[in-house]
Amino acid sequence: CPPERVYRMLVTAEVERWWGSSGTYVMREWIADVRPGGTWRVLVCFADGRRLPASGRFVELDLPEKVVQTRAYEFDHPAVGRSETRVTYLFARTPRGARVTVFHEGFQGREAAAVEHALGWERVLSWLEPYARRVHDEERRRQ
Fold first, then answer.
1. Helix H segments across the chain?
2. Taking a C-beta distance cutoff of 8 angstroms, is the pair 25, 139 a contact?
3. How does strand 51-62 pair with strand 97-105?
């Protein structure tokens, strides 16, 4: 998909369609005021039945190239507690769609948390890619 389409997949309730798997967790109840300073909130629903909230605010929205947002768990996450971190998504147009680069900062002194989240982002992007391919194919067929 082009960067502007992938951008929407990450900042709207569309995250509920692709972010997660039945064996890990899924996102539900996404609410976002998509503007600089606007807030977002989601309920992370784990396979074991736990339902844990996360939230943050949008720091920068530069459509379709960049999203910067804060992120905090509203529960005592084992690796980061309730500390606020910062996620930056960069979108680069490619001949086949978009390349998404994720920077997740705010883990100073918590190397295990940084590694856990890096592995988590690999998993998230592995969910996003096939979803984006399906959406792209469906949208092209409708044109």
1. 3-11, 15-18, 111-142
2. no
3. unpaired
Quick check: helix, strand or coil at residue 93? strand
Handedness of CA 26, 34, 67, 97 (dihedral sign): positive
Give me the long-range contacts of 79-86 (CB less than 8 A, separation at least 24): 79/110, 79/112, 79/113, 79/116, 79/117, 80/107, 80/110, 80/113, 84/56, 85/117, 86/59
Contact 138, 43 (CB under 8 A): no
Q: Is the pTM of this model over 0.70?
A: yes
Q: How many helices (DSSP H) and strands (DSSP E) are in the chain?
A: 3, 6
What number of other Cβ atoms are within 10 A of residue 69's Cβ?
24
* Interval 110-130: pLDDT, tens: 999 999 999 999 999 999 999
Spatial CB neighbours of 22, under 8 Å, sequence gap ≥ 6: 47
